[in-house]
Description:
It comes from Roseivirga pacifica. This is IrrE N-terminal-like domain-containing protein. The protein folds into two domains: 3-118, Arc Repressor Mutant, subunit A (Orthogonal Bundle), CATH 1.10.10.2910; 162-257, Beta-Lactamase. Helices cover 37% and strands 20% of the residues. It is built from ten helices and nine strands. The chain has a five-stranded antiparallel β-sheet with strand order 6-5-9-8-7, sandwiched between helices. Helix 7 (134-144) packs across helix 8 (148-158). It is globular, with a radius of gyration of 19 Å.
Amino acid sequence: MELGQIAARKLMNQHGLQDLSETPLELVAAGLGATVVEKPMNSADGRIVFGNRKTLITINSNIEFLGKKRFTLGHEIGHLCMHRDHFLMHNDTDATLEYFKSGNQETEANEFASELIMPEAKFREISDQYEFGPDLLRFLADYFKSSITSVAYRYFKYGNHPICLVYSFANKVKYWMRPDNYDHFIKDCRNLTPPSDSVAAEYFNNGIIYSKNESQQEVWKSTWFELKNWENDSDFSFYEYCIVTPKYNTVLSVIWEE
Length: 258
């Protein structure tokens, strides 16, 4: 179990918390001695400033979606609980919140926010009841009032259907995640443009963002995965769902086989 997850469970157990889907996280922060304010921020989504008596957490009021604001606040609460001795003031950008690896402290704060907002047991209980697809990710995001990006990472870890994740920024693949012992191997396309026949490429090249009803797009296995000599693309049913954030020019491709 990761340090962030352990810290979040410890906090919840200490205060008798089980499911925070209906609880404003501002109350959690206040109980820990922090004041939360919202205001426009140009270069960060969240900031935490530690004081001798009081801690100030600022959330960017320009964040469009409630789920992302909530995850950002959970991330800052993670810093509050785990990293008080590491810095007096800290800014968090979209990169740190989208799981783009930038140090143990950021990873730990993401783990903390995920467990605080989407406790593992509750997440498994709900997600196990449904077949995987974009609608399930959207349902989980609505239930837990979290960002759909954070839900996708959570499902990668605890969902009962294997999925792969590919994170692209400014038309370059930055990293990918594949389940252990998965039958298919992702082509190593880091620092390259997404495959020309991928849904991610449709966004970066043509600005295409599919509607909810069309968000599950069929792709060839060979689009993202190695195709063995004896295999045919037509023997597989792969799909790609892209979580697009135009403001930051990022795409998280969720890829799975049916």
